[in-house]
Amino acid sequence: MGVGEDGSCHIAALLPFTEFVMGGNRINQQRYATQHAFSNMAAALMAMEDFNARDSRIVPELSDDEFTECDVKLSLSVLDDGSSNDFTVSNLLNHINDMSGEICGIAGVNDNFAAREAAVLGAAFDVPYITHAAETSKISRTPLYRLSAKISADEFFRADALIKYLASIGRTHIMLVYSAVHEDIIRVITLAGKENGVDVRTEIFQPPFASTGVGSPLDAMRRVKESGFRTIVLAPARVPHLVYIAQAAQDVGIDTDEYLWFAYDVVDLDIIAESVKTQPGDPLDNLYSGMGSVRTLDGFAFKDDDAFLQAWKENDEEFVSRLNTLNPIAPQMPGFIFAQPNYFQDERNFPILFSSFMYDTVVALGMGACRARNIMINNGTSSPLQIPQQVNFNPGLNLQYNETVKLQFQGASGMVNLLDGFSYTRDIDTFTFGAYNVRPKLEFDEMQNVSKHRYEYFLTSQRLPGEEYSEINPFIYADGRTTPPSLQREAFENNFLSSGIRAAGLSLVAIGIAINLIMATWVFINRKKRPVRVSQPLFLGFICFGSITSLIAIILISFDESYGVSATYLGKMCNAALWFFFLGYLIVYSTLFSKLWRINKVLSLRRRVVKPIHVAAPATILITCAIIVLVVWVIVDPLKWDRQTIDDFTGETFGRCSSRYVTVYISVLTALCVIATFIAGIMAYKCKDISDEFAETRYIFTAILTQVQVWIIGIPIIILVNSMSVNATYIAKALLVFIFAVSVVLLVIGPKILSSLGIGLGENNRKRGKFGSKDKTSKDKAGGNAGGVHVSGFNPPSPTSTISGVKSTVVDK
């Protein structure tokens, strides 16, 4: 293996003239990227002849002394790789055997998997291998692929180029639909998305394509529709597989001009232009019309004065004859092309993608062979194994490969430098990338006298090394316009609070505040009348105030981003809602406790004057503690409005108030509320034998029991629906606050209003502080007073009780 003693160096180039597909019970060979392969074959032949002639029109370095004085001469064989691993290995092994091992370089192969097989064979036979089109980063100097390199752009570079272009036209939500054989693409395109701030999602499809189950094209397209993404990048294993994708896209209704389709770099546009023939309105036509693709550009694609292009056009009839002789496909076989004498002067036979890269691949193998040959001659040996290790040579590697990867030259595809990191591929700044636009065209077939619907692709934008994309030609989208579809993604579910549910919640607030204002107004108007005066109107007013305070919390939780409120203000409203609810709750129950405690003191002690301040201590302590907790919470760990994505695929989001230690603070505040409720309940129990005219214990017990039941049922419901339904969570919270705020007021003040209207609810007359006893003969055995107020087994010295300065004289008739 390697350069012969006479300087001969034979190169085998593998190109995808055909592909092998399963048809029935047999494998059939059919045309594949035939035009592509033929163009690349012509480029390889041009490279061989230019190298042998040391023609420096395209590669100036060929005129350097180290190459002009070198006696290496290239010969070339072209093989059909069959677009498959097995056929690549089989053809290459047979060729190596036919050449009796006299081969010094392997070039070509487009398919990533076939390229890896070629790299393995190169390493096994100690022959350098360079791919001109495969993108896989697995081709590197590892034990398995130790003699391989890439003239083409690495898969990371290609993915980055695609994402950058899509981002440049405002597409920041991208769905990659890929075949199972291209799983490596997920890694590179996802990384490129992260680096460029683009949201990239992926969806797989795999055989059998006719099925409708998981992994089928139909399932993949359904998932794409669910995601709402409208920019879709396709990476099938074979171009014909796009037929199934197109049909599935039509079946689910995403083949309209509202969607933007792009073909990943693995899709050969020449196959689309060459092989696919469909009718307008057909699923494939809907898919291809306006499709885009981002590619590594050959110089001839964007430079009119490109040296390779000029040399291409100058190829004469003799060159065409040598080219036809080199063709590996026999006449009448699938994939055969016979070039006419004026082939290179016909404008229709413009060089095809990667032709310049194939040219540089062959030249690089020749230049590397030259350098290796010169080193061996200078060291007086014909064997690289006898070369001293200190002669710029990595021991254990093929000398020719070692010299090839160190090359730097200006090639047909740009500056070639294969020492970029571990992968032995060119630096990204040596590539030019371009965006192509697939457009339909009508082609008249004179032989058949019919018009055929076909496709062609145009270069619309390019990105020179180190620059941004610039437009060359307008990109024509599926709707015929030059602007992309405006909607990047379907309006995914943000779980915003619906206006109807919000209106219901605010209606509860309005009803609750109205009830409290009515009650407070009635208390104020009737404050000097006996039923209200003895019920301590000041405390009744505080109960209404606390109730209204808690109801305001519903208003504060009735907003999200859909109502034009920013996340910052929503966070502030989260904190304010807690203040209003918890303080309102504590005001209500602390007031109930103080009210009951005061009347109990009045009727149980000899001291007959008990001012509100005398019973304010517990309420003050509880409310102060709550304020301290709330202040610490707001300063140390305030609630913030947090909108999180709860379904990465569909993009569904859910907004809520959150903080790091929310559970701790809520627990402390809840404990304070429980204490307030508990002491109010205990005091109500102690006052159970006091007349409802003073203490309303029966109704307070009813309110507490009602609310406890509501909380026991409501809180678990809120926890369950908290991450499931914004509307359910909101209405549950609103109802709990409403029931709390309204039930106490209605049960404490409501009966007094009914009593004033002559509607009695019934009461046991044998209670402490009950006025109007008709037992004229009863006497207080201990004190001798008849018919007075019975206070816990002893008679007070005076039948007059003073509550907040208002006298209430008890008369025994």
How does this model look, in words?
Residues 385-396, 764-768 and 770-813 have low confidence and may be disordered. The radius of gyration is 44 Å and the shape is elongated. The strands form 6 sheets. An 8-stranded mixed beta sheet has the order 9-8-10-11-12-15-16-17, sandwiched between helices. A 5-stranded parallel beta sheet has the order 4-1-5-6-7, with helices on both faces. A two-stranded antiparallel sheet has the order 2-3. The N and C termini lie far apart (133 Å). 44% of the residues are buried. It is 43% helix and 15% strand. α7 (217-227) packs across α8, α15 (499-525) runs parallel beside α22 and α19 runs antiparallel to α20 (662-686). The longest helix has 38 residues, at 567-604. The chain contains 22 helices and 21 strands. With 813 residues, it is an alpha/beta fold.
SSE map:
Blueprint: E1 8-15, E2 18-23, E3 26-31, H1 34-53, H2 65-68, E4 73-80, H3 85-98, E5 105-108, H4 112-124, E6 129-131, E7 148-150, H5 155-168, E8 173-179, H6 183-195, E9 199-205, H7 217-227, E10 231-235, H8 242-252, E11 260-263, H9 269-275, H10 283-288, E12 292-296, H11 307-313, H12 317-326, H13 355-378, H14 399-404, E13 408-411, E14 414-417, E15 433-445, E16 450-463, E17 470-471, H15 499-525, H16 530-533, H17 537-556, H18 567-604, H19 617-636, E18 640-647, E19 652-658, H20 662-686, H21 697-721, H22 726-756, E20 800-803, E21 806-809
Parallel strand pairs: 1-4, 1-5, 5-6, 6-7, 8-9, 8-10, 10-11, 11-12
Antiparallel strand pairs: 2-3, 12-15, 13-14, 15-16, 16-17, 18-19, 20-21
